[in-house]
């Protein structure tokens, strides 16, 4: 048995600890935002946040997550109340096929969590591991720049509501 805390909810799963986190999320928790692209850690489509770090969930064994909290695209907002990054991607029409987008957003979220108001240069450097086969990188960067500009900077002891 493995307990995974995903988007603030604890789930106890009867799975092999070696099962990649991506499979646990998609096949056992019905969280299908993170995508299977390459299964080799080379495309970023499966990116989620574990603890405070963006990780490729196709390579991370579920049993290695431990007590760290997992965040997926489903935890950032809803269609009715999208998070800042989700809103930025919609406003900039950043998705073409959409397959890479959840991974792009989660890697960007990890950046904005630790660097609110990140610069375009920081965004480009951070997103370097994530590939978009549709080639919509310019709109993706524009969407994240817009979200960074809309991200409030927390002061010590204050929580930041990420939803727009
Ligand atoms: S599916 Fe995980 S990096 Fe490509
Ligand atoms: S929008 Fe199609 S892979 Fe990025």
Automatic annotation (TrEMBL):
Keywords noted in UniProt: 2Fe-2S, Iron, Iron-sulfur, Metal-binding, Oxidoreductase
GO MF assignments: 2 iron, 2 sulfur cluster binding; metal ion binding; oxidoreductase activity
Keyword hit for Nucleotide-binding: no
Keyword Oxidoreductase: yes
Residues of the 2Fe-2S ferredoxin-type domain: 1-76
InterPro entries: 2Fe-2S-bd, 2Fe-2S-bd_dom_sf, 2Fe-2S_ferredoxin-like_sf, 2Fe-2S_ferredoxin-type, 2Fe2S_fd_BS, Beta-grasp_dom_sf, Diverse_Oxidoreductases
Pfam family, one: Fer2
Protein's UniProt name: Aerobic-type carbon monoxide dehydrogenase small subunit (CoxS/CutS family)
Biological classification of the source: Bacteria, Pseudomonadati, Pseudomonadota, Betaproteobacteria, Burkholderiales
């Amino acid at each position: 048995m493995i307990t995974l805390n995903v988007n603030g909810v604890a789930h106890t799963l009867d799975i092999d600890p070696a099962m990649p986190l991506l499979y646990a999320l998609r096949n056992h928790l019905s969280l299908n935002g993170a995508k299977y692209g390459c299964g080799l850690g080379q495309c970023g489509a499966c990116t989620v946040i574990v603890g405070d770090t963006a990780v490729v969930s196709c390579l991370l064994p579920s049993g290695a997550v431990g007590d760290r909290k997992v965040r997926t695209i489903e935890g950032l907002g809803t269609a009715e109340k999208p998070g800042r990054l989700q809103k930025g991607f919609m406003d900039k029409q950043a998705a073409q096929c959409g397959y890479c987008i959840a991974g792009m957003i989660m890697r960007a979220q990890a950046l904005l969590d630790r660097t609110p108001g990140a610069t375009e240069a920081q965004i480009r450097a951070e997103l370097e591991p994530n590939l978009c086969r549709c080639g919509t990188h310019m709109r993706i960067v524009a969407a994240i720049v817009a979200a960074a500009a809309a991200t409030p900077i927390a002061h010590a002891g204050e929580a930041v509501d990420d939803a727009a």
